[in-house]
Amino acid sequence: MSAQNALTPRIFLFRHGETEWAKLGRSTGTTEIALNSTGTAQVSSAAVMLVGPGKLLDPRRLKRIFVSPRKRARQTFELLLKPNFDLIEKKLTYTEDIAEWDYGDYEGLKIHEIRRLRQERGQDKETKWDIWTDGCEGGESRHQITERLDRLISQIKEIQQPYMHGEKPADVLLVAHGLILRCFTKRWIGLSIDNSLPIMFEPGAISVLSYKNNDVDEPALYIGLALPSEEDAQRRMEETPTIPIEPPIASGAYEVNGGVIKGA
After folding, report:
1. Burial class (CB in 10 A: 0-12, 13-18, 19+), 32
2. Contacts of 28 by beta carbon, 8 Å cutoff, 6+ apart
3. Angle at 235 between CA 206 and CA 12, to 5 degrees
4. DSSP assignment, residue 30?
5. What one-character-per-residue DSSP string does 135-185 give?
6. Helix or strand or coil: residue 2?
7. Mean pLDDT over residues 57-81, rounded?
8. What is the pLDDT of residues 136-181, one digit of tens each?
9. Helix axes 142-160, 178-188, angle to 10 degrees
10. Contact 206, 46 (CB under 8 A)
């Protein structure tokens, strides 16, 4: 990583670990399902390798953390950062803006079951159902997804804009779900939700976004991120200050600060 890029704030996306429904390919939106043993192991392993002072995800460099309120995302967050909770508690917000796509009538169904259901209803006579374009009956449309993600992106940019040249550490972490994080990635670089850009995101995996040229108006994908050397990690451990907390409360969010308070 160049010295210039090392100064630029980053956005870490972390997908929750595996659940039994995810393992079976069942659409999981609002249903509260816990991680299975594989999912717990995925996140625990990632925490050991990636999280800690001087590591890729350094809790002291986090300015804000946004977590989906769904149980599987909460469990993932706790496994990932619980040992560092004293450092990040006041930076944490649970928000529906990063919750998984609401599948509505299709909750719990597999893709082939959704397509069969729609055909039985007289739909999709010429093309197959595609969530990216068609959305979910009784759930959310791509336009609704776009609206809430753009709201969150605006908030993140507002948080990070004063620190584009490394004035203070200002990384942001999102802990959420596979589909919504792929949607977020598209919107981050200005693509529509229904853009055909193919993206894969495994359970318990991490992805990184940032900005080109230290410019808040040039959001970018970090497709090649060099891990810090032992020397760099040690230096960052010594130099990284504790970040003062000035958390704005977004609409529909839950702010964690010595308790849970519902936002306005």
Report:
1. exposed
2. 19, 21, 22, 72, 100, 103, 107, 108, 177
3. 15
4. S
5. --TTS--HHHHHHHHHHHHHHHHHHHGGGTTSSS--EEEEEE-HHHHHHHH
6. coil
7. 97
8. 999 999 999 999 999 999 999 999 999 999 999 999 999 999 999 9
9. 60
10. yes
Q: pLDDT tens, 174-227?
A: 999 999 999 999 999 999 999 999 999 999 999 999 999 999 999 999 988 776
Tens digits of residue pLDDT in 110-119: 999 999 999 9
Tell me, yes or no, if 177 is annotated catalytic: no
Exactly one of 16, 18, 140, 177 is catalytic; which is it? 16
Give the amino acid at 89.
E
Neighbouring residues of 27: CB distance < 8 A, sequence distance ≥ 6: 21, 103, 106, 107, 108, 109, 110, 111, 114
Is 16 a catalytic site residue? Answer: yes
pTM for the model stands at 0.85
Name the nearest CA neighbour of 53 among 206, 233, 227, 225: 233
Q: Which of 100, 140, 177, 255 is catalytic?
A: 100
Q: What is the CA radius of gyration of the chain?
A: 19
Give the full edge-to-edge strand order of the sheet including 253-256: 219-221, 206-211, 11-15, 171-176, 62-67, 92-95, 253-256, 260-262
DSSP string across 164-176: TTSSS--EEEEEE
Report the distance separating Cα 181 and Cα 99, nearest Å: 9
Coil, helix or strand for 74? Answer: helix
Q: Which two tokens mark 243?
A: 């970040």
220 backbone dihedrals φ, ψ, rounded to 5°: -145, 160
